[in-house]
Design brief:
340 residues, mainly alpha, 12 helices, globular, 0% strand
């Protein structure tokens, strides 16, 4: 990247990320659609449990963003072997972080949720959901590490395939486990949580196999599992910490909002969950372009091409705003169609 990337080059990097996030968010939409046919309690509880899970998940997502920026910088500098070290250390941190989160959630979340929820039925359903869902955090963080790696080296094509596989597996298992089809036990909200965990695990297996089979990844020294290097973690942390806080605060605000809605009744909570699922689906392009611009800017700086930074940002902003205006128009003129 010796000059500012064209709109076409930005789109080539961005659209697989859009497909990836689209497939992931379809999981949430499908869960909402299926659980809406189970009952209002289950639909509302999946919102509370899901937002609790995603608020914690966004801490890892923020750390992954910092790792992605560093990997893109090393790519621009031509230090390819350092990319694998950053990726492997990201896995180390995520393994420890996942264990801590699982213990924390299983131990403290029932007490925490019990203090703020008025409906006993929604409370117990939320706890049952989290008891299954939280085990997926280790798979979710591993997927974040792989996404950071592939976006960092600007080879995003695999992301759409991974997310597509995850979405298909989740939809099939949702249908089987929530309603007790095809010989499965009828698990309700717990089935939705378990289906998501398994789908995320399948996505990790796909990433590992596809990465090992692609010889072009060998130059990045991925999966060499080097000795723990505090300096790599420190640099990643310094870049990531405020992104982590920003992500956590934004999702925590949603979580607190839904706790307030829960006080008004089970039906308002269920309705709010439907709107939230749709709103997040319409936000996908924003997160996709933000991931792209992180890598493009960091790579340009690594190549010594700092003059390209603001032109890259301006181009990505124009693309993002154009798509946003189209989506806003759709939401204004056919809201009933989207909700149905």
């Amino acid at each position: 990247m010796l000059k500012t990337p064209s709109y076409r080059q930005i789109w080539i990097i961005s659209y697989p990320i859009i497909l990836s996030l689209l497939a992931q968010n379809i999981i949430g939409v499908v869960d909402t659609a299926f659980l809406g046919r189970v009952g209002e309690v289950e639909l509302g509880a999946s919102a509370i449990g899901g937002l609790f899970y995603h608020a914690i998940f966004m801490l890892g997502f923020g750390f992954g963003t910092g790792a992605q920026i560093l990997m893109a910088r090393r790519k621009g500098e031509g230090l390819f072997s350092q990319i694998g070290k950053i990726f492997d250390h990201t896995l180390y941190i995520f393994a420890a972080f996942s264990l801590a989160i699982i213990i924390f959630t299983l131990w403290l979340s029932p007490m925490f949720l019990g203090k703020f929820m008025s409906s006993e039925a929604v409370y117990h359903a939320s706890v049952r959901y989290l008891d299954f869902r939280i085990w997926g955090i280790m798979f979710a963080f591993t997927n974040v590490a792989f996404r950071a790696y592939y976006v960092g080296i600007a080879k995003t094509g695999l992301l759409g395939w991974s997310a597509g596989i995850m979405a298909v597996v989740n939809i099939i298992l949702d249908y089987a486990m929530i309603f007790g089809n095809w010989g499965f036990s009828e698990m309700g909200i717990e089935g939705a949580a378990l289906a998501s965990v398994i789908a995320e695990g399948v996505s990790v297996v796909f990433f590992v196999v596809a990465t090992l089979l692609n010889r072009s990844n060998q130059k990045y020294h991925i999966f060499h599992l080097p000795r723990f290097d505090r300096e790599i973690v420190r640099r990643t942390w310094n870049i990531s910490v405020f992104i982590m806080l920003q992500n956590f605060v934004s999702l925590s605000a949603w979580f607190l909002f839904f706790l307030i809605i829960e006080q008004t009744g089970e039906r308002p909570l269920a309705i709010s969950n439907i709107i939230r699922s749709l709103y997040l689906l319409l936000m996908i392009h924003v997160w996709s372009f933000s991931a792209s611009v992180n890598s493009l800017v960091s790579t340009a700086i690594g190549e010594g091409n700092s003059n390209a930074v603001f032109p890259i940002i301006h181009k990505v902003n124009k693309m993002g705003m154009t798509i946003s205006l189209v989506i806003i128009a759709i939401a204004i003129f056919i809201p009933e169609t989207l909700l149905r």
